Structure formats: structure tokens, C-alpha cells
Amino acid sequence: MSSKKKNKKRQETEIRSQPSSAGREIVEVKIPEGISFSFRYYQEDKDKFSIRDRDARYFASLLRRLRDLSQLKAEEVINNQSKSLRCHVINWQDTTEPNGFGIPNEDQLVNIPYQFQISANEYGRVHGFFSENVFYIVWLDPDHNLYR
């Protein structure tokens, strides 16, 4: 490498590592309480829980439901008795998946599995579990295939 290239690379590195010269006002922002959603354990490879052929209305409804639920705390979602939400515990013995989600370390990760509906029976269910205020989505079930 020529000395010109080395000097230029050194200058670029020095510029990147210097703090911004613009004075910034630090503003404390209070992050609103509510649940967050994670797709860390999402399983897209199970045909019975496939969303491959869904239209834009399905995805729009799913995103609206996740947005609306993110305004609530986990306890509010779990204890909600509304027929429009229908959040309840999954009893594996009553399902088509008696062995659970099948994710690694499931017995340590999943305290209680839950499901909730996207909209009134039109777009199916979301299956997953809470860890504090994060709901980990494992399956999207547009055709209600978990309970048959």
C-alpha cells in the first residue's frame, strides 16, 4: 500500500473516531410501556403455519393488531376477557402439536404458551410466549391449524 493511501486511510479513521463538533442537546425520552414483539423464534418452515400465500389485507391486519397490542402491558393482554382479542393459554394436549413449539431449550424459555387472534376469526391466530413484556411470535396460524 502506498504511503498516500495509508495516510488517507489513517485520516478517515481519525475523523470517524472524533466526537461530533456540533453541540447536541441531550433530551431524555420516556419510552412508553407496552409489549414488544420479537420474531427470534419464528418458525416459517412449518407448512401448517405458512403465510406464504397471504394477501396484503392479512399483513395489514397483522401489523395493526401488533401495533394495537403494543399499547398494552403483558398482564393486560393475558387478563383481557374481550372476545375481540381472545388471548388464552395453549393446552398442547388439545392441539395438533402435542409436543409444543419444538424450539431449542423450550422448557427453559417458555413458561406459558399463548395465542391471540388477529381479528374476529378472519385472519387466524398468533402463537408464542411472553418473557416479561416481550411476546415471542413462534407461529402465525391464518388457517386455525393448531386446534383442529
Q: Can you walk through the features of this model?
A:
The protein has a 5-stranded mixed β-sheet, with no helix packed on it. The protein is 26% helix and 17% strand. The longest helix has 15 residues, at 3-17. The mean pLDDT is 87. The chain has helices at 3-17, 56-69, 74-79, 106-109; strands at residues 36-38, 88-89, 113-117, 125-131, 134-141.
Keyword list:
26% helix; 4 helices; 5-stranded mixed sheet; globular; alpha+beta; 5 strands; 148 residues
Shape category: globular
* Unreliable parts: none
Distance between the termini: 67 Å
Total strand segments: 5
> What order do the SSEs take from the amino end to the carboxyl end, as H and E?
HEHHEHEEE
Fraction of residues in H or I helices: 25-40%
Q: What does the average pLDDT come to?
A: 87
Number of helices: 4
**Proportion of beta-strand residues:** 15-25%
Based on secondary structure, the structural category is: alpha+beta
- Computed Rg: 22 Å
Largest sheet: 5 strands, mixed
**What oligomeric arrangement do these chains adopt?**
single chain
Strand arrangement, major sheet? 1-5-4-3-2
Layout of SSEs?
Layout: H1 3-17, E1 36-38, H2 56-69, H3 74-79, E2 88-89, H4 106-109, E3 113-117, E4 125-131, E5 134-141
Parallel strand pairs: 1-5
Antiparallel strand pairs: 2-3, 3-4, 4-5
Briefly characterize the structure.
With 148 residues, this protein is of the alpha+beta class. Helices cover 26% and strands 17% of the residues. It has helices at 3-17, 56-69, 74-79, 106-109; strands spanning 36-38, 88-89, 113-117, 125-131, 134-141.
